[in-house]
Specification:
This protein is an alpha/beta fold. The protein has two domains: about 230 residues, Malonyl-Coenzyme A Acyl Carrier Protein, domain 2; about 70 residues, Malonyl-CoA ACP transacylase, ACP-binding (Alpha-Beta Plaits, 2-Layer Sandwich), CATH 3.30.70.250. A four-stranded parallel β-sheet has the order 2-1-9-10, sandwiched between helices. Strands 4-5-3-6 form a four-stranded antiparallel β-sheet. The longest helix is centred in the N-terminal third of the chain and has 21 residues.
């Protein structure tokens, strides 16, 4: 029996022109771009469609932009009869998953993630924080090194547990730099600094989490009509109060992406549809389980391929 999960990418996947073809083909799809502009009070759609890339990549622009495109794609699939049994999203993508699962309205989702981006941007001054991808070590080995460095005064911790052999660390610039050196000495194949605007999913984001908590109190959150796998604990959640608490915690906690995908696999998911620009999550899922069917949807061609393929699912 076919079970489907919609998965939504996070920051880093954004690119100028994403969703353009899909938004132009149907009026309903273009509505998401217009509605986002109305909610935010500026032309997000122009930024998505025309750039520049540097402005689109700023966290408080990238977050609502990715949610808008991901939600539009999920809606097109659902309208065509491709419906998920579960949803999940990587970091920011969790908000797109919550919109697809009926927890947040699209309007509230766009508004909240824009604020989330502003809070994250303000939490740590530019140049103070950093992130890096560590390849070739497991979580236990990474955590041992980062815990030691943190205990000596330079905060750093695992931030994204993406797939076997790929862990992103986050923290102070000094902490991340020291960790990169020590992790390579401990056997990491590579330690790659990431071009990000802040130390996401680290303890340095706790001031932003407090503001996010207040912002979430101002929106309506419903119980999920489609179960969601949460980043923080990799568990299937439907209760709105629990989901709200986890969104706040998510800001300063590791994204347990590998565990989240394993939870979906353990619950019978056979097909993963990535709703958003690029194929980052598709690649990670294949590294977690080569037998999984993974289908990214980012333009009209890939959308129609999934719709056509779904006619043979039982």
């Amino acid at each position: 029996m076919t079970k489907v999960a919609f998965v939504f990418p996070g920051q880093g996947s954004q690119k100028v022109g994403m969703g353009k073809e899909l938004a132009e083909i149907t009026e309903a799809s273009g509505h998401y771009f217009k509605k986002a502009d109305e909610v935010l009070g500026f032309s997000l759609s122009e930024l998505i469609l025309e750039g520049p890339q540097d402005s689109l990549t700023v966290t408080y622009n990238a977050q609502p932009a990715l949610l808008t495109v991901g939600t539009m794609i999920a809606a097109r699939l659902t309208e065509a009869g491709v419906t998920p049994d579960y949803t999940a999203g990587h970091s920011l993508g969790e908000y797109s998953a919550l919109v697809a699962s009926g927890v947040l309205s699209f309007e509230d989702g766009v508004s909240v993630v824009h604020k989330r981006g502003l809070y994250m941007n303000d939490a740590v001054p530019a140049g103070v924080g950093a992130m890096a991808a560590i390849l070739g070590l497991d979580n236990e080995a990474v955590t041992k090194v980062t815990d030691d460095i943190t205990a000596n005064g330079d905060a750093v911790q695992p931030a994204n547990l993406n797939c076997p052999g790929q862990i992103v660390i986050s923290g102070t610039k000094a902490g991340v730099e020291k960790a990169c050196v020590e992790l390579k000495e401990a056997g990491a194949r590579r330690a790659i600094p990431l071009d990000v605007s802040g130390p996401f999913h680290s303890s340095l984001m706790k001031p932003a989490a407090e503001k996010l908590s207040a912002a979430l109190d101002e929106v309506t959150m419903n119980d999920a009509t489609i179960p969601v796998v949460a980043n923080v604990n990799a568990k299937i959640i439907k209760d709105s109060n629990q989901l709200q608490e986890l969104l706040v915690e998510q800001l300063y906690s590791p994204v347990l992406w590998e565990d989240s995908i394993r939870t979906l696999l353990d619950n019978g998911v056979t097909h993963f549809i990535e709703c958003g620009p690029g194929k980052v999550l598709s690649g990670l899922i294949k590294k977690i389980d080569r037998t999984a069917t993974v289908m990214p949807v980012y333009d009209e061609l890939t959308l129609q391929e999934v719709i056509e393929a779904s006619k043979g699912w039982s």
